[in-house]
Design goal:
Elements lengths: L3 E5 L10 E4 L10 H4 L3 E2 L7 H7 L6 H11 L3 H16 L2 E5 L9 H11 L3
Parallel strand pairs: 1-4, 2-3, 2-4
Helix pairs in contact: 2-3
Length: about 120
């Protein structure tokens, strides 16, 4: 199974992170590119602004958010970046970085990791 880790982008990078991939549509506030140490900014796998706003990190919407997000991930652009992420994971650990969410259990990186793991070929 591909090795996908999760981490808030504001946490300092560590050697064990492997490839660091930002999976948010917006660049994190107050963070320079050097401090973020992002290897790839995968905007096309981030949820749409509309979906992100609808979800609002409301726990009761988590299940529906995941379903809607999976639908968005079927776009050709998202599928291309998903293929890139899986290719990176075949070479080693990939850390999916997120900024907007403070919830470590219900955020787009968690949902994306689930998709990456379950549809991996």
């Amino acid at each position: 199974m591909p090795a996908f880790a999760l981490k808030r982008v504001y946490e300092p990078p560590k050697p064990g992170d492997g490839a660091r991939v930002l999976v948010d549509r917006l660049w994190p506030r107050g963070l320079t590119k050097e401090k973020a140490a992002v290897d790839l900014w995968a905007k096309d796998v981030a949820p749409s602004r509309e979906l992100r706003r609808w979800f609002g990190h409301a726990p009761e919407r988590w299940g529906e958010f995941q379903a809607r997000y999976r639908e968005e991930l079927e776009s050709p652009e998202a599928q291309e970046q998903i293929a890139t992420l899986r290719a990176l994971a075949r070479k080693g650990r990939v850390t999916l970085l997120y900024a907007a969410a403070h919830d470590e259990e219900m955020n787009n990186a968690v949902a994306l990791r689930s998709v990456l793991r379950h549809k991996a070929s």
